[in-house]
Amino acid sequence: MSKVPMTAKGAERLREELKELKQVERPNVIKAIAEAREHGDLKENAEYHAARERQGFIEGRIQDIEGKLSHAEIIDVTKIDAGGRVIFGCTVDIADEDSGDELTYQIVGEDEADIKKGMISVTSPIARALIGRSEGDVVTFQAPGGEKTFEILEVRYE
What we know:
This protein is of the alpha/beta class. It has 2 domains: 4-75, Transcription elongation factor, GreA/GreB, N-terminal domain (Helix Hairpins), CATH 1.10.287; 79-156, Transcription elongation factor, GreA/GreB, C-terminal domain (Chitinase A, domain 3, Roll), CATH 3.10.50.30. 39% of the residues lie in helices and 26% in strands. It contains 3 helices and 7 strands; from the N terminus they run E-H-H-E-E-E-E-H-E-E. It has a 5-stranded mixed β-sheet with strand order 5-4-3-7-6. It has a two-stranded parallel sheet with strand order 1-2. The longest helix is centred in the first third of the chain and has 31 residues, at 8-38. The radius of gyration is 22 Å and the shape is elongated. The two termini are 29 Å apart.
C-alpha cells in the first residue's frame, strides 16, 4: 500500500487515541467482561454481550489506527518553505466570488477531514483546485453543486 499524507497534528491525535484505547479502554473492557462472567449464565447475560461487543469495537479501532499510522507519510507544514503557495497541510483563507463569504480551510489527509472544523481532504474538488495556487489567485472549479469561484486571500503554514 502506498503512503498516505497526514499532518503532524493529525498523526499526534491518532497516537493519543491509540494510547487511550490501549491503556484505558482495553483494561476497562477486560475488567467488565470478568465482572459479567461472575454473574453466571453467559447466554442470557446482557452485560457480558455488551462488554464483548465493546471489546470487538476497541480492538478493531486499535488495528485501524495502527494501520493508518503505519501507512502515513507525516508532513509538518511548518518546516516546509512553499513560497506562499497552497500545499498540503496549509491553512488558506478564501472568498466566495458569488456570495462574498469568507471561508478558512486547512488541507489535510482523507482520514483527518472534518468540514465542521474547517479541515478539507486533499482529494476534495476545492483542495485539488487550490493546490499550487498563491494569494490573490482566483480559482474556478467544478463542485458537486455546480461551478464555484474563489479568490485566495491568505495562505498560512501553521
